[in-house]
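Weekly puzzle thread! Below is a chain. First person to post its structure in token form gets bragging rights.
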Amino acid sequence: MRFDVTLIRIVFIAALVCAGLYLKPVAASGTISAGVAAMLALSVIFFETRIRKASLKTLIGGAIGSILGILGATLIGYLISTQPEAAVHPTFKSFLTIALTLFMGYVGLIVGAVKGDYLDLTALGGILTEKGSVKLHPLILDTSVIIDGRVADIAETGFLAGTLVIPQFVLRELQQIADSADSIKRNRGRRGLDILQRVQKKKGSYEVVISESDFPDVRDVDHKLIELARQLEGKIVTNDFNLNKVAQLRGVSVLNINELANALKPVVLPGEIMKVFILKEGKEYNQGVAYLDDGTMVVVDNARRMIGKNVDVSVTSVLQTTAGKMIFGRYNEDGRAAAAPRQQVTS
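Winning reply:
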């Protein structure tokens, strides 16, 4: 297939050069005309190689945008042509019409290609659906998940694909936080802006889009996110528990970073043995508290006097809560729980 395309390109260049050589459209010189024809052919081939990489949505959006731009320029050109020659010089009138057509056609092509990703080709019954393509819903980032920063790590691993949408009203909220008089809020806001720059600079399986959509009638940022997600048929990426619940009630899908982190924590089963570092005493009598590397709390019975030491613990139960996972274990003073430690946590 590559050989066929190359052959067609060679034939196209040769035909255009021969036409320029014999027809002499430029300065009545065959050599100059052939050189101009060769440059034109190379420009066309360069445009063709670039446009082959574009998605079907981009092509359709660019075609629709350019057609609308040319139609608008035609209507305006008609109004210009109806002006009397005494008011507008004919040469200037022709130049203005051509310039307006090129300008509006170019703007329509660029804007249509950029906005083409928002087209829903499934509405056409699959006639124009790309072969082997899977519909990827836009992922809309909220303020909390941007400040949290873990979304950048996830994006860099390649687990996020498609379009990452950053609403303009979220950027405004981040800027307000970064300009706050409170130093803690100011640092959080600046961290969020740094995370956005990191996500934008990293080239991967996703594309970052700044959405200008706004909802003036909605004042709360969380509700604006929900409305935008419904408009784009996208998913909200957040770690806000309240936004998660409200969005689900409104029928909007949510990707919660905290739920992902909990799902990736190591699986611990009752009866397993693990080595932990008792950091402090627990709430109940004779309890000690330890933490795993991922922050999971381990409550250990009979371990109060072992604070500051590494001990082998037998897991008794695992409790999954909305805030995360808690592990309950027991320390046997006779040392019978010391077999095959599963993992080790140090202070």
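Puzzle host: Confirmed. Bonus trivia for everyone else. DSSP finds eleven helices and eleven strands in the chain.
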